[in-house]
Amino acid sequence: MSVRAAGPDDLDAVAALEDECLGADAWSRGLVEVGLAGEVPTVVYLVAEAAGPGSPVVGHAVASIVADVAELQRIAVTPAARRGGHATALLDEVVARSKEGGAERLLLEVREDNAGALAFYAARGFVEVDRRRRYYRDGATAVVLRRGLRKGC
């Protein structure tokens, strides 16, 4: 397995992951294309490859890093590759890049009914700091999670 920066050549794989893993909340192909082209300077796209460089893309993550705050906007792994460490590797890379970018904390939102994701993030040091009612298209609530990236945060 490997994690690397994503680029325009990853458009098909990332767009497919969005549709497969995020359903009604998936980003459009056009939005993904803009991000992968590097047109949003604060946004980082990463992909996880199944068995190392050149193997199929099985996951992706998107983070925005602005000053002292980073936000994990997306993380998704195809169902066939779940429980293989890909999400952990993607999150670890987001954390590393966020620290390098000067961020002191990492924020994200998770559907309140996604027990697996909530447990995944709790095990990695995230704590609930807020809730956003009717955040998702279907009206579900988002749980806002935070993890400090520097001592004292």
TrEMBL record:
Matching CDD domains: NAT_SF
Top-tier EC class: transferase
Domain of life from the UniProt record: Bacteria
Annotated EC: 2.3.1.-
Annotated keywords: Acyltransferase, Transferase
A single GO molecular function term of this UniProt record: acyltransferase activity
Signal peptide: none
Pfam families assigned: Acetyltransf_1
Domain N-acetyltransferase: 1-150
Identification of the protein by name: N-acetyltransferase
Organism lineage: Bacteria, Bacillati, Actinomycetota, Actinomycetes, Propionibacteriales
